[in-house]
Amino acid sequence: MSKLLKIKDPVFGYIEITDDDPNAVINSAMFQRLRDIVQTSYSSVYPSAVHNRFTHSLGVYYLGKIAQSCLSRDIKRQHLATAENVDKYGKTFLLACLMHDIGHSPFSHTGEHFYFKERNAAAQPMIWRRLLDELADDDFVSDLPDGKVVGAEHEVMSAYVSIVNYSHIFEKYDKSFFTRCIIGLKYSDASDVRNCFIDLLNSKTIDVDKLDYLIRDSFTTGFKSINIDYKRLLNAVCVIRTSNSILQGFEKSALSTLESVILAHDMERKWIQNHPVIKYESNLVAYMIAKTQGAYEELHLPLFSAEALSEKGVQNENGRICLLSDADISSYAKKFYGKDKWITEFFSRGTRKKPLWKSESEYRFYFDKAGVAPNVLSLLEEKFKSLQDALILRYDFPVINQRVLDNFNYEIENAKFVPAVVSAGKKAELDKVICLINMLKDYSAEKEFPFEYVIIRANQFKTGFNKSELKNIRVRISDRENCILDDLLHLFNADNPRDNYFYLFVDSSAKGKVDVGELAQKIANFALHEYQQR
Questions:
Q1: Which class in CATH covers the domain with range 5-274+463-487?
Q2: If exposure means fewest CB atoms within 10 Å of the residue's CB, which of 222, 270, 272, 305 is most exposed?
Q3: pLDDT (tens digit per residue) in 387-427
Q4: Could you give the strand order of the β-sheet that contains 354-355, starting from the edge strand earlier in sequence?
Q5: Quick check: helix, strand or coil at residue 94?
């Protein structure tokens, strides 16, 4: 056994690492790379939220250890698997907890979609194909729903780089079970107790990954929405047997904490993740990443690849990349400071655009007051979403200005290719988009501020209490009785709003000139004229 490793964590206190393999992973360069991968994009509003994937991974390991101990004890008590197998499952599960984010791209989720960009002849992401080849497990493949990719981009990458770069460790572990824990792929046999471990790390409800980021994000932002008694919750983890399956559930003692977790998740999603300044910052980061990615593609260096994350890295006559992190993107982007307005905005906040409304609630107030029927407003929101997608596709940033308007007019006049996401192949749709842009241009001229708007969509808030998966969490009342959470907490009756809304940002010089209610009414009148069903 290796020397005890004790790491002081500001959230959970001392985290103890007593096993050789987790200790070796933590001290490796690939895992240490996570110190330089920011956990969230919240620091634009909450300056202290500069925590990283390294501390988050340690936190998930710590919480996983509590949950694993309780779950393993209950499995053994009910004689659902041999003690030897349960211990093996537990060790693999904990390794997955520790390494579940080791494949994260710079700036966390913002750049990970590049991982799936390279595809094979069957249109499968190459990194997914490489993972399947590495596992060489027919049972794993047979459990894939319709042969589809399972797991987010960073989860697939995390599983792959773990197995490949730590091959000497994985001689002692079940690679397929490890991968299932990270990507959330259950065994088709509903009575397999390993599914309970999978649910504890990657589920659609409550798991140790979500639990750590809820607690840690609240701690670092200072956004004290609600206290989560994680020890009470995780010590209530249990196994519930039904007529044909074995499920991971919770003891009835955890009811109050289960409600707290759902409320905390709701508050973070509604008031932090959808904050307009945070949404704007994320779009600036995405622009910066896209510009950097494009430059490295020209140099034939695969920036977002398994090799670039490793110690060995990737190299050619144009240079070398290894242990890819946030700093690599920021360092490259600084070359364009003062030359590219969006990169300049990322580093210098004084020129950033300001949101006309600052929350979904304020948005609803203005547009409800404007008298737009829900079905018409839904159509308008879809058009704004499509327009944002098209602008990012073509300009890497969702800006509306004279250049964009001129380009759209040119395409109409010359019958050039029009992006399907805007027009769906219909000239009439693009005409409406141009009409909307001209209306915004006229308003800018009338109020005497620069004609440049940024559109950023957000997801309408939908409470977690409406999710069917949460409603169906199993709660054990006694060894002979259990029920679903919905039967015990009568909170699952919230409204189901539309999918999207949008923020509109303008130049800071527009402060005091824009009447938000007036502009909302103009947009509403446009929607009523163009999209009102007759």
A1: mainly alpha
A2: 222
A3: 898 899 888 999 999 999 998 888 777 755 455 544 444 56
A4: 354-355, 500-506, 452-459, 399-401
A5: helix
